[in-house]
Amino acid sequence: MPSRVYLDWNATTPLRPEARAAMLAAWELIGNPSSVHAEGREARRLVEDARAVLAAAVGALPRNVVFTSSGTEANTLALSPGLRRPSGEPARRLLVSAVEHPSVLAGGRFPPDDVGQIRVTRSGVVDLDHLRDLLAGGRPALVSIMAANNETGALQPVAEAARIVHEAGGLLHVDAIQALGKIPIEINAMGADLATFSAHKVGGPKGVGALIVAEGLTGLEPLLRGGGQELNRRAGTENVAGIAGFGAVMKAALQTLSEDAERMTSLRDRLANGIRAIAGATIFSDEVERLPNTVLFTARGLKAETAVIGFDLEGIAVSSGSACSSGKVQPSHVLSAMGYDPVVAQGAVRLSLGWSTEPDDINRALEAWRKLGNTLLRA
Question: Looking at the structure, do residues 327 and 292 belong to the same domain, yes or no?
Answer without folding.
Answer: yes
